[in-house]
Design brief:
By secondary structure, the protein is α+β, with helices and mostly antiparallel strands. It has one domain (42-249): 2-Layer Sandwich (Alpha-Beta Plaits). It has helices spanning 2-20, 31-35, 56-72, 104-115, 118-128, 169-179, 212-222, 228-235; strands spanning 43-51, 78-88, 93-100, 131-141, 156-164, 189-197, 202-209, 239-249. The chain has an 8-stranded antiparallel β-barrel. Strand 2 and strand 3 (93-100) form a beta hairpin. Helix 3 packs antiparallel against helix 5 and helix 6 runs antiparallel to helix 8. One of its GO terms (biological process) is mitophagy. InterPro entries: Dimeric_a/b-barrel (IPR011008), NIPSNAP (IPR012577), NipSnap_domain (IPR051557). This is Protein NipSnap 2. Residues 157-254 form the NIPSNAP domain. Belongs to the NipSnap family.
Length: 256
């Protein structure tokens, strides 16, 4: 009996461990290389500023005076993709999305030149007095999403942000490479991004709609397309947290 009991113990331990140890398939490349667009080397920066409520109008005016100068300056390899105020979601908030053509070297070049720009230095100091908090992320584009290009308005924009469980980015990309085809009929898909620096395992989907009712109608219509429900079913377990911002573009935003 003693021999039988001792012989079965390793098998029991092995079986119990198999219940709790997750098997991970080895990958031979970073998910940034597997999911990002290879034909471009653009890097995106998402800036989120929480503004003092009494300063929001002054903040918007200041940004509309200074940001286009950076966007239009030929010596800066960057472009303003869009700039908004949050309408529904966290209030008194500004959201800016920048593109850096050429990746990290372009980002470094722009930051170096801006440090020597006295007008921008004064702008940052004045802007800082208006803020409660700020954060940013560096992002790459998903290869299967539309590239964000200027569009005419008026539109409202929805930024849907997902905090994924670590290790699930590849799964998310595989599912959404199929899911995006369900959301192209009304040209609402603006861009899709995933974080590289800042809060990690973050995904951002940017959508444009005529108004809130149009948003509701388009989203409801997706559920009548065969296959959409299945893709939602498989992606929801990958999410830890999610947030939706409804945003209004500023006058200087290329995305109107």
């Amino acid at each position: 009996r003693g021999l039988g009991s001792s012989a079965s113990r390793p098998r029991e331990d092995s079986w119990l461990k198999s219940l709790f140890v997750r098997k991970v398939d080895p990958r031979k490349d970073a998910h940034s290389n597997l999911l990002a667009k290879r034909e471009t080397s653009s890097l995106y920066k998402l800036q989120i500023h929480n503004v003092k409520p009494e300063c929001l109008d002054a903040y918007n005016k200041l940004c509309q005076e200074v940001l286009p100068k950076i966007h239009e300056e030929k010596h800066y390899p960057c472009a303003l993709v869009g700039t908004w105020n949050t309408w529904y979601g966290e209030q008194d908030q500004a959201v800016h999305l920048w593109r850096y053509e050429g990746g990290y070297p372009a980002l470094n070049e722009v930051m170096s030149k801006l440090r020597q720009n006295k007008e921008f230095t004064a702008f940052r100091k004045e802007r800082g007095n208006m803020l409660l908090s700020r954060k940013n992320q560096l992002l790459l584009e998903f290869s299967f999403w539309n590239e964000p290009v200027p569009r005419e308005g008026p539109n409202i924009y929805e930024l849907r942000s997902y905090q994924l469980r670590p290790g699930t980015m590849i799964e998310w990309g595989n599912y959404w490479a199929r899911a995006i085809r369900f959301r192209q009929d009304n040209d609402e898909a603006v861009g899709g991004f995933f974080s590289q620096i800042g809060q990690l395992y973050m995904v951002h989907h940017l959508w444009a709609y005529k108004d809130l009712q149009t948003r509701e109608d388009i989203r409801n219509a997706a559920w009548h397309k065969p296959g959409w429900d299945e893709l939602v079913y498989y992606t929801v377990p990958l999410i830890q947290e999610m947030e939706s911002r409804i945003m209004i573009p500023l006058k200087i935003s290329p995305l109107q």
